[in-house]
Amino acid sequence: MNKTIIIITLLAFSIPSFAWNNHAGITYLILKDHWKAQKAPMVKVESLKTFLSKEKDSIQETLSLSEEWALTRLPHLTRTKDELKFANITKETDLVTQFYKALRVNPNHKAALYIQSVPKKSGKILPLGQLTTLNEKGKLVNETFLSLHEGQMIGADEVLVSATDEPDYDLDLHLFEDNNSDVGKVYGFGTQPFGNPAVEYSSQAPFHMGFFYEPTIIFTLAGFLKRTYPELRIHQFTSLSKLAFAKGHPYWGYRFAGWALHYIQDLTQPYHSSVLPRVGASKQIGVQLVSMVGYQTPKDNMIQFVSGRHTLIEEYQYYLIKDLILTKNWNHPVVTSIMTFGTNDRIEWKSLDDLRVNVCKEAYDAGEPTDEQLENLNILKYEKLYEENHPIHTILASLLRNTSKHTRAYLDAIQRNN
Questions:
Q1: Measured on CA atoms in the order 245, 409, 214, 300, is the torsion positive or negative?
Q2: What is the pLDDT of residue 417?
């Protein structure tokens, strides 16, 4: 029997596709502290079409240089087909759609002018249909989005807070050959390596996860786990952010930086840097073998328990952060872990080449202790928020401190280089 099938059938449909559910809230708390000594810069709102029209001669060079970097880093990545490149624009070309195709993202992404209201404020409500193409809106129905207009002045912090959530709205949906989309057939990403290609939100999973430290035998039998793309996205959007700043478009400088930060923050989540924490390779293979002879319970239990803890920490984090911002409970241990950073606590973001070591290895190493601590809580699913001294807050405080640390380092680098 093909040994690869053993691992594929075990993992392909068992990996959850979400990471931190509340990027905007987390980033709000980080910036509340990180920029407390200075007022956030004010920037002029600009449509994506305007930015692309003014800088169309520089876009393709930026994307090509980014792709060359990614090709050396990701052996599974294919080159962008010539017909997709932004250089092929004509007078009749839809600049925004061609730009998306050159990036190889969802060509239907809206890129509306908006802010996510964190905390809530008054303004003209932006309907969700103008923000996302998702059929299942999920927790977006709980959020408030306010329309902006071109030329309006807005704080850079509000741009960043909103942008860090945006890639989850549909940017990476339906990009694989088996996702039943036109672009999936031409983008060159092949079939979806893991996650369920028939499930809308799951199709983005390989762009928001990075598995670099699994045992050799897992990679040997399940090489598809190497086919992840967050580094591509981070490099693309960081490069575009630098271009935007250099050419005098600070709004898009911050917005692209926020998009890049989304993927960095995802990789600080242990369940996005480790396939099945605390489940050794021999057990993964063993439970699959016995399931193939009719004893399904061990495999079902293993997947249910691990994915359940993943879901628990995400659900709890989402509602906790919303509540802490609403009540302004700045003394809560999770808030202090995110916001209390001295000079000695900071690290330097040197380059994307160090992402795997500085971000992913740290998250992978946190996987086993985090999973064990969550299991010991004996909480099967999110039902309510607990008192401040509950141990779930100790777990979240540790994880989100790492998210805060790497977010700050990236923002410092962006500010330093621009």
A1: negative
A2: 79
Give which of 138, 135, 116, 118 is closest to 126, Cα–Cα: 116
Here the tokens at position 298 are 């061990």
Residue pair 251/45 in contact (Cβ under 8 Å)? The answer is: yes
Number of domains in the chain: 1
CB 159 within 8 A of CB 115: yes
CA-based nearest residue to 107, from 48, 63, 163, 172: 172
pLDDT range class, residue 224, cuts 50, 70, 90: confident
The answer to whether the CB of 310 falls within 8 A of the CB of 317 is no
Q: What is the residue-wise DSSP string for 252-286?
A: HHHHHHHHHHHHHHHHTSGGGT-SSTT--HHHHHH
Residues facing residue 115 across a β-bridge: 146
302-323 mean pLDDT: 82
What's the rounded Cα separation, in Å, for the pair 298 and 296?
6
**Contact between 269 and 20 (Cβ < 8 Å):** yes
Is 257:241 a contact under the CB 8 Å cutoff?
A: yes
Residue 297 has pLDDT above 70, yes or no: no
Supply the pLDDT for residue 51. Answer: 98
**How much is the pLDDT for 170?**
95
Q: What's the CA gap between 50 and 67, in Å, rounded?
A: 24
Please state, in angstroms and rounded to a whole number, the distance separating the CA atoms of residues 371 and 394. 13
The domain of 226 spans: 3-417
Bridge pairing between strands 42-44 and 153-155: antiparallel
